[in-house]
Specification:
By secondary structure, the protein is mainly α. It has helices at 9-22, 26-39, 47-65, 72-93, 103-136. The chain has one domain. It is built from five helices and no strands. This is VanZ family protein.
Length: 138
């Protein structure tokens, strides 16, 4: 059974947010950096944002597939979908003034997505282990 279509709305919203942020020019982002550095001292660039954004995107993709059914195969799909979207995002940035595609950004996107997939698979295994323990202790 497949997940209902509405379960993919968070992923669509997350992709839209990433797209809109990627459409900011280099000058606009440079203006945001000092404000972000006040919130997060030590932030030198927006590179860490890639980890976070694609961690969240991967979670929304997993939600679309159904969190409770996440397994290694679906986790791989989540990672691949996230990287594919990251690649389209980098391509899009080639057309934004003051921005350019960057392989390092795509790597950060993939790492963020993979971290989310690992967390979800471990969470599912922990839940399955807990349910087996409860079933045997009765």
């Amino acid at each position: 059974m497949t997940a209902p279509l509405w379960r993919w709305l968070p992923a669509a919203a997350c992709m839209l947010i990433i797209f809109l942020l990627s459409a900011r020019t280099g000058n606009q982002l440079d203006g945001w950096l000092p404000w972000a550095q006040e919130l997060f001292p030590g932030l030198k660039s927006f590179d860490p944002v890639h980890y976070f954004a694609y961690f969240v995107l991967a979670l929304t993709f997993a939600y679309g597939f159904g969190f409770r059914r996440i397994d290694a195969r679906r986790a791989l799909y989540v990672i691949l979908l996230s990287i594919a979207y990251g690649a389209t995002d980098e391509w899009h940035q080639a057309y934004v003034p003051g921005r350019s595609p960057d392989w390092a950004d795509l790597l950060h996107d993939g790492i963020g997505a993979a971290a989310a997939a690992v967390v979800l698979v471990v969470w599912r295994l922990w839940r399955l282990r807990g349910s087996r323990t409860r079933n045997y202790s009765g």
